[in-house]
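User: Hi! I'm working on a homework problem where we have to compare a predicted structure to a textbook description. Could you give me the structure for the chain below?
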Amino acid sequence: MIRNFLKIFTVILILLFLFLGYFSYFGITTSKFNSIIKDQIKKQNNDVEIELKKIKLHLDLNNFSIKIKTKNPKIISYNSNYLDLDEISSSISISSFLQNKFAIKNLSIKSKNNEIKKYIDFYRTNKNIFQIILIKEALKKGKAKINIDLYFDEFGKIKNNYIVNGKISDTELTIPQSIKNLKLNFTIKNNNYKFEKIFFKLNKIKFNSENINIQKKNEKFYVNGNLKNEKNKIDNDLILLILNKNFKNFDFSNSNFESSSNFTFDFNKKFKIKNLKVNSKLNFDELIFKYDLFKIKNYVKNYNNSISLKDNKINIQYSEKKFLLIGSSEFYIEDGFRNFLNFKISKNKNKTDYETFLDLQNIELNFDDISYRKLKKDNATLKIDASENNKTILFKKINYTDNKNKIEINNLKINNNKILNIEEIKFNYLTKNNFKNQLSLSKKNKNYQLKGKSFDSIQLIENIANSNSDNNFFSIFKNLNTKVKINIDEIKLDSESIIYNMNGNLEIKNSKIFGLDLKSNFSSNEKLFISIKTQTDNEVVTTFYSDRAKPFVKKYKFIKGFEDGNLDFSSKKINNVSESKLIIDNFKVQKIPVLAKILTLASLQGIADLLTGEGVRFTDFEMIYSKKDTLMTIEEIYAIGPAISIMMEGYAEGKDLISLRGTLVPATTINRTISSIPLIGELLVGKKVGEGVFGVSFKVKGPPKNLKTSVNPIKTLTPRFITRTLEKIKKN
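Assistant: Happy to help. Predicted structure tokens:
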């Protein structure tokens, strides 16, 4: 009997092993566990149900559990939304099941490729938060395939070691720019979110990322990742989105663009981003800077409102505390002529630092104001080191070098187009007139020293002569109060005249000249001096004297062939109204176009020939006038000479209108005839040359470039003319 028992036991044991082997290897298909799985899912979310087909069971002897797997189930929400699943699998602890405890060890869900909005709707059945609503609004379309691995404790709660991974494809977002064709792989583990193989299209540009990682800690999310794009054409909207409005004058439309960026930041549940750090490398093969800089046209030849920038390499390093922009470019003002640009911009809080290097070899420069010109073939560089803080710009150093020429400016501070301070300016260059400008302005304490070996003032004198403006040069400074000591060895006035040993003092108060005392000399017996004094009643008295008048007078375009003479000028100015007197003695002019026209109209051709030939000599010239704003009122212009005498008055309204009337007396025609009559001629004319009873009355009126002249050839002289002539004759 024992023997039969052993046989039966052996058979049962063999069948059991066969069953267990079949159960563990091939598995058993059943639907008995469907209700258990449904109940466990119902415990997790009462609003969700699962539709299951038959389940296949496998015995796991190692873990003493039963593995459950079902194909093509569906998850259905309370609002009849459903998700198509590919597979659900689980592992049930046999011992826990036998003890009537929570038996599911894990649950694995693999979905099919469903619409992302369906996942969002299912998530909202559990957590209907505002951020999820925003995500759904931003989502236009997209699909996702998701795998979820959940692990449970003995009480049925999900452990933190869950794993979610999957793929997103064919997705489009608007945040606010349209992101299209988004696809990526993702993995979520215990508050760690990893996104890999990311591809998307933004404004027709294809971007990709190797990985973006998000980690959740203490209700915050910490993000790091990278973003790249291959060369592609772009439009300005994208660049303005990545950069800022400071680049609005750049045309990127024909540029190929590639970039590589690494970034980190964190954000809270309200999506408020903090601690953003970005390190980007941008390459543009070509872009165009378009700007109508009319001032540049005055200095840069062939500038046509655009600069072509090629092979642009830019590195951007950004954080909330600091912004760094480093770049290099080739730039072209003319096609075929290449120059180089390097720059560095660093911003920290309210302070921005700039470093710029420009190679200017293939650019022709022309600065008339300082009489400087650089030819295209000449090498030249410009270095600028500056900083900006609260709208105040400090140019720490501006250094321009051209072969042996050099201009240097140190610590120039500007705010609202006003100069607040300047420490030093150095000029060492050859001017257009082949004269060396060797000059420096340096600050010591609150005062300055202007000194140098030589200075070319030809252009400066010409600018003053051609200007109708009464502007104050020092108005470019903000509340300047200083004293300047001046000492210059040589100053070139024109091609023939040089003054030596100019020295003196200049005092400036509230950005206006308060006092000036300058002395110099042409030779041992030819002097020049300038004096400006401000009186206690704010009246400004100006005195200028030169033993040579020619360097200053010949700059005026309406006078030709000026020779000899000395110049004496005095002026008083108060409340923006000036009264001035100009005297020039012992000079001659070869041609005064308006005067020659008057003489010709009066049929005084002989004197007209003199004015266009050898010249007319004057012993005295005196002009008395006043000025307020742009209106110059000429009270009297009087000149007397051996050939003619002139008196006139009138006004000039800026550059718009000139109106003059006066009398001209030729000493070589009627008056000379009258003066030859015994006794009567002496009584009427006098013995001195230049006096007369008969003369020419004239009027000149119109715009400076289109003056109209009228003449009355014979006219009895006015008492005023006779009186002024007698005064001059008596004085001489």
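For your comparison, note the following. Residues 603-612, 668-693 have pLDDT under 50 and may be disordered. The longest helix spans residues 2-25. Good luck with the assignment!
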